Amino acid sequence: MNGENELVVGVIGGLGPEATLDFFGKVLIHSRAKTDQDHIHLVIENNPKTPDRNAAVAGTGMSPGPALARMAMALDRAGVDFIVMACNTAHAFEKDIRAATRKPFISLIDEVADEVRRTYPEARRVGLLAAQGCLDSRIYETAFSRHDIQSLQPEKSSQERFMRLLYRIKAGERGPDIRAGMRQLGEELVAGGADILIAGCTEVPLVLTSGENSKPLVDSTDVLARRCVSYARRLESLPVRLDS
Amino acid sequence: MNGENELVVGVIGGLGPEATLDFFGKVLIHSRAKTDQDHIHLVIENNPKTPDRNAAVAGTGMSPGPALARMAMALDRAGVDFIVMACNTAHAFEKDIRAATRKPFISLIDEVADEVRRTYPEARRVGLLAAQGCLDSRIYETAFSRHDIQSLQPEKSSQERFMRLLYRIKAGERGPDIRAGMRQLGEELVAGGADILIAGCTEVPLVLTSGENSKPLVDSTDVLARRCVSYARRLESLPVRLDS
Fold first, then answer.
1. How many CB atoms lie within 10 A of CB B180?
2. Does B2 have pLDDT greater than 50?
3. The predicted structure's pLDDT at residue A241
4. Contact B14 A34 (CB under 8 A)
5. Which residue, A79, A90, A10, is CA-closest to A50?
6. pLDDT of residue B1
7. Which residue on chain B is closest to A49 by alpha carbon?
8. Which of A46, A52, A228 to mutate to test the interface with B (most CBs of B within 10 A)?
9. What is the pLDDT of residue B3?
10. Contacts of B43 in chain A (CB under 8 A)
11. Above 90 in pLDDT, residue B187?
């Protein structure tokens, strides 16, 4: 592999940090490198001080937009070639990132929708294990609808359980009740008609992996990590945005 | 914790990437955070394309100095407050980093020597599990001598075994023979008179942890991670360099 021709990946992270660590680890796994120099070059902006994304979408907290824009600008100044973000919900503020830099921003949401279409061409309904702000901003619903895929959400009380689990995971909990609770939420979506489950929040794969539910789980962190390696090595061209 | 007052840590990484991932994970553990916002802000420059440090010290390869300097400058431009490097051997090129930026550079080597003096005041001889370039450049020997601690190295053939293990770890190997081989090298240093073992290469703690040898092992990655959290939160002042 010729490092000279490879692209440098900028990562907006810290949302939360454990999810960024998980993303970094998955990039290394997908790189299948035999020497240091075979790995891809990443710059990771891990700013956990970014305001809570769910509170912002709900209108009860400050927007994370300015903090996300500052991370994008810092990555731009550091010399990255394209930017990704290891968080689903924060994509509700994607326009703040795109406004802050001319470097290409690769949407995790679009990559996941594309991955589902490629890997599961028969899928008609996906079940979203995602944070409230991610659901309320309809970012996955919009992306999947372009592929004629319907998005299913948990019932209101189940989604409240999801949010409690999410903040316990962010606090470092990984106990069996958390794992069982997340798996149960997945099964409820399957019972509601989901053909595929989406780990549409980067904290989900910290406690749930594919094979634990009765339908496949697509790990958004893993999809983004794999695509980053392909884009950095120019095995695939960066996606062109239709609306830009 | 008030994020406004905290310092942003810049990390020179990718030397190798698995060691940088290990460092990042240890920072998160030492942060003991209960929310995303409790974590510290890091910017990680993970450039694995940096030329091999051991070949450079041996005079058989290009200097990594310019690549390390470029990482330091990228971190500077990204807005970090101080810089650390998650690699021991590359500290042989520390002057290239210091020349590239006015941001404080915190030496992993000095932090480890200081940690040994604080934690093991009776230690007289440390055994170095470190790469050839780290030994040949005498960076640990110099730092420990300031604390009147003698540095012990493996015999020549043992050091050659160390180097073979090192490159297998960089290639992703973590098998029991690698772990046993590293533990054995530690025991040989203990037999030679070491009171304390130093995991003086960031690949060592990927296969060897304290408690496996008959003397304590000081993990340089863990020391740096812990100190970074303290410095970022201003629980300790950044060390002042005597020669600057």
1. 13
2. no
3. 73
4. no
5. A90
6. 43
7. B37
8. A46
9. 57
10. 43-46, 74, 78
11. yes
Q: Give the C-alpha separation, A40 to A27, whole Å.
A: 8
Which chain B residue has its CA at the smallest distance from A40's CA? B48
**What digits encode the pLDDT tens for the residues B64-121?**
999 999 999 999 999 999 999 999 999 999 999 999 999 999 999 999 999 999 999 9
Which of B6, B20, B43 should one mutate to test binding to chain A, selecting the residue with the greatest count of A CBs within 10 A?
A: B43
Total residues found in chain A within this entry: 244
| Ranges of chain A whose pLDDT falls below 50 | 1-2, 244
* Residues B136 and B180 reside in one and the same domain: yes
* Whole-number Cα distances in Å, B235 to B7, B185, B227, B238, B240: 11, 36, 9, 10, 15
**Catalytic-residue membership of B134:** no
A199 and A227 housed in the same domain: no
Q: A60 phi and psi, to 5 degrees?
A: -105, 0
Tell me if B243 is assigned to some domain. Answer: no
Which pLDDT does position B242 carry in this prediction?
A: 57
Q: Are residues B76 and B158 in the same domain?
A: no
- Residue B151, in any domain of the structure: yes
Do B136 and B202 fall within a single domain?
A: yes
Would A84 be classed as within a structural domain? yes
- A16 to chain B: closest CA residue: B36
Q: CA-CA distance, B189 to B140, in Å (whole number)?
A: 15
**Do A64 and A23 lie in a common domain?**
yes
| pLDDT tens by residue, B142-155 | 999 999 999 999 99
A238 in a structural domain: no
Range of the domain at A39: 3-107+222-232
Residues of chain B contacting residue A43, judged by C-beta atoms under 8 Å apart: 43-46, 74, 78
Among positive and negative, which fits the CA dihedral A71, A74, A76, A81?
negative
Find the residue in A nearest to B19 (Cα): A36
Q: In CATH, what number is assigned to the domain containing residue A11?
A: 3.40.50.1860
SS3 B77: helix
Q: Check whether residue B136 and residue B215 sit in a common domain.
A: yes
Identify which of A18, A47, A77 has the shortest CB distance to residue B77: A77
Quick one: which H or E segment has residue A46?
A: strand A42-46
> Which B residues, 10 through 29, put their C-beta within 8 Å of a C-beta on chain A?
14-18, 20-21, 24-25, 28
Q: Do A97 and A131 fall into the same domain?
A: no
pLDDT digits (tens, 9 = 90+) for A75-104: 999 999 999 999 999 999 999 999 999 999
> pLDDT by residue (tens digit) across B207-233?
999 999 999 999 999 999 999 999 999
Cβ contacts of B34 on chain A, cutoff 8 Å: 171-172
The predicted model scores a pTM of 0.96
Q: Of chain A residues 171-200, which have a CB less than 8 A from chain B? A: 171-172
Report the distance separating Cα A25 and Cα A111, nearest Å.
19
